[in-house]
Amino acid sequence: MSLLTNILDYNEQFVKEQSYEEYRTTKFPDKRLVILTCMDTRLVELLPKSMNMKNGDVKIVKNAGAVVMHPFGSIMRSLLVAVYELQADEVLVIGHHDCGMSAINSHQILEKMKNRGISEDTFNTVGYSGIDLHEWLKGFSSVQESVSHSVDMIKHHPLMDKKIPVHGLVISPETGKLDLVVDGY
User: What are 61-115's pLDDT values in tens digits?
Assistant: First the structure.
């Protein structure tokens, strides 16, 4: 049985038993907060629990490393929508120790892509389009500096409300302990 089949079978039972009832809420965050964090598997339940957050309390935006790479990319768009349309009044950027983005090697990733069938022609096409794949796949050496950089990009974005506090934290994926990097107040 495939993973997808397992998921769909479970979901059918979940809906049939009305297990969704305990998760009902609105699209607006009760704590009026949007969080940008990493997609790390260790944070799925640990992050909200370590902050006393439950379903409906916050908007959570995730990507590799909790990094704002481009001022007009999908991460920044999501944060702006959370503020202007979904009633978020504060932003938290939360990176974590032992992040995979701190050890990422663009050469290794590109080699893995080649091993899975991505052709040299495809890499050339991307390069001709003006994308430097090594820069695009670049990680960071300091999670604190990365969090500070993302906070700065959000705070100084020309479309961000200047009254919105933007905070930066780093969480331990082992204990859930939060360390303050930037106090947005």
Answer: 999 999 999 999 999 999 999 999 999 999 999 999 999 999 899 999 999 999 9
Residues 65/97, Cβ–Cβ less than 8 Å:
no
Tell me the pLDDT tens digit for each residue of 30-52: 999 999 999 999 999 999 999 99
Point out which residues pair with 33 in neighbouring strands.
58, 90
Residue 60 burial (CB < 10 Å; 0-12/13-18/19+)? buried
41 in Cβ contact with 64 (< 8 Å):
no
State residue 130 phi and psi, 5-degree precision: 95, 10
Q: State the alpha helices, DSSP H only, in the chain.
A: 3-16, 43-50, 74-84, 106-115, 120-128, 133-136, 143-155
Q: Which one is the CATH code of 25-104+139-182: 3.30.70.260, 3.10.310.40, 2.60.120.10, 3.40.1050.10? A: 3.40.1050.10
State the pTM of this model. 0.93
* Beta bridge mates, 90: 33
